[in-house]
Amino acid sequence: MNKLLILVVEDDPAIRNLMATTLRTHDHRFLTASTGASALMQASTAQPDVMLLDLGLPDMDGVEIIRKVRTWSQMPIIVISARAEDTDKIAALDAGADDYLTKPFSVEELLARLRVTQRRLNFMQTSTASPIFTNGELKIDHAAGCVWLGDRELHLTPMEYKLLCVLAQNVGKVLTLSFITQKVWGSSTESDIASLRVFMATLRKKLSGGKEDVQYIQTHIGVGYRMQKL
Ligand code: CA
């Protein structure tokens, strides 16, 4: 497994030093930037594998950086911000961030998110254009339109199947309610979101296969859902 090159974007020197020390201690390769302009420059020239991004920067809002980076790159972006409101998380995720960590954060939590990102990157590299998606016991055969859990075929409604495919295409990534309803229904009204919760509940039940401890779909209350890479 190659070591990730991580771009740390943070204007607070104390937090930047803490992150740098943590990454160095755990043998990660990293670069740092303290302004939005320098973050964008390094993101395009050094082509890091992952960006850890503070939202409140002196010259630019972090959400703006996410939008700009997304015009040319799909690199995972983990937002690390003191803004704890759901609306801030949703704005960052909708702009294309992959994950969100609220300050103050623990070093262990940061390292765990990086491990998730590493798994997701490995998975993306090995599973491009495969007609069969697998994750733990879950298997989606896109060509046949069938879903299996171990050796048992799951009977999903067309809507549940569509939802499952959206989650699977973005495995490891937190998807907002509005992102999912846009993908599935092409709109994001309150009634779409209410329907989404209902379909998601039945889908989760079918995916659990009666085992409470197997959680393919994680709920982020007020924000959205994530399919975990098992
Ligand atoms: Ca800041």
Concise overview:
With about 230 residues, the chain is an alpha/beta fold. Helix content is about 45%, strand content about 20%.
Shape: globular
Compute the gyration radius: what is it?
Answer: 18 Å
* Attached small molecules: calcium ion
Q: What is the SS-derived class?
A: alpha/beta
Distance between the termini: 18 Å
User: Which CATH top level class of the largest domain fits?
Assistant: Alpha Beta
| Beta fraction | 15-25%
Order of helices and strands: EHEHEHEHEHEEEEHEHHEE
Helical residues, percent = 40-55%
Description:
By secondary structure, this protein is of the alpha/beta class. 44% of the residues lie in helices and 21% in strands. The protein contains 8 helices and 12 strands. The strands form 3 sheets. It has a 5-stranded parallel β-sheet with strand order 2-1-3-4-5, sandwiched between helices. Helix 3 links the parallel strand 3 and strand 4. The longest helix has 20 residues. The two termini are 18 Å apart. Calcium ion binds next to loops.
